[in-house]
Design goal:
Blueprint (H helix, E strand, L loop, with lengths): L3 H14 L5 H13 L3 H4 L10 H8 L2 H7 L5 H20 L9 H22 L24 H12 L3 H10 L1 H12 L11
Helix pairs in contact: 1-2, 1-7, 1-8, 2-6, 5-9, 6-10, 9-10
């Protein structure tokens, strides 16, 4: 999943283009799935232990189930759905066949290690302050990420923040592969991050 800072950056950028949203309710919804006690349930995922990286991506969450379940009738619900779209696309954005040389646990750990660098960059670039209750999650750690270039982070924020949530819901329910491919194409205008080979 994307880090909290990335979700906040996407949420704030989305709010710039949708002035009718309730800002505080939307930002709460943006973070809600990752702050839930049961993250598998909040991401509509399956409680299975993946044996490959590809399975990790598929088991992480069920975007079709989310689209069927979440009514986009409040700022909170719309933000929650945006969060889940972000997570669904995020793993596919960072995925490469090179990752199949890793175990799912190694991929998760490498991403979490990189989140420190990504969080530091995003908080500074987008002038974001984490809520006081979440400040402990942001390490002031500068360095080079092996998954994400600054350009890739910015592109990801821009592309995901520009989705039309109502149209996205229809596309997810009728043609999920096309929905994903369209966003991935937009993201791949930036060179894909290069992973260090283990």
């Amino acid at each position: 999943m994307a880090c909290l800072a990335m979700h906040l950056a996407i949420g704030k950028k989305y709010l710039q283009n949708h002035k009718t949203e309730n800002e505080s309710e939307f930002l709460d919804g943006t973070l809600a799935p990752d702050l839930a006690n049961d993250k598998i349930a909040s991401h509509f995922g399956e409680n299975k232990k993946p044996t490959t990286v590809r399975e990790l991506l598929e088991f992480k969450m069920d975007i079709v189930k989310a689209a069927n379940t979440i009514n986009l009738d409040s700022s909170f619900a719309r933000a929650e759905f945006l969060h889940l779209i972000c997570d669904d696309i995020f793993y596919r954005f960072v995925y490469s066949e090179e990752l199949e040389k890793w175990t799912p646990i190694e991929v998760k750990q490498a991403m979490y290690d990189d989140y420190d660098f990504v969080t530091y960059y995003i908080l500074n670039k987008y002038n974001i302050e984490l809520p006081k209750s979440l400040v402990h999650l942001a390490n002031n750690k500068q360095g080079k990420s092996q998954f994400f270039s600054a350009e890739a982070i910015d592109r990801f924020v821009d592309v995901v923040a520009s989705v039309d949530l109502f149209d996205s819901k229809k596309q997810i329910l009728t043609d999920l592969p096309s929905f994903r491919n369209n966003l991935i194409k937009q993201l791949n205008l930036v060179k894909k991050p290069q992973l260090k080979v283990k």
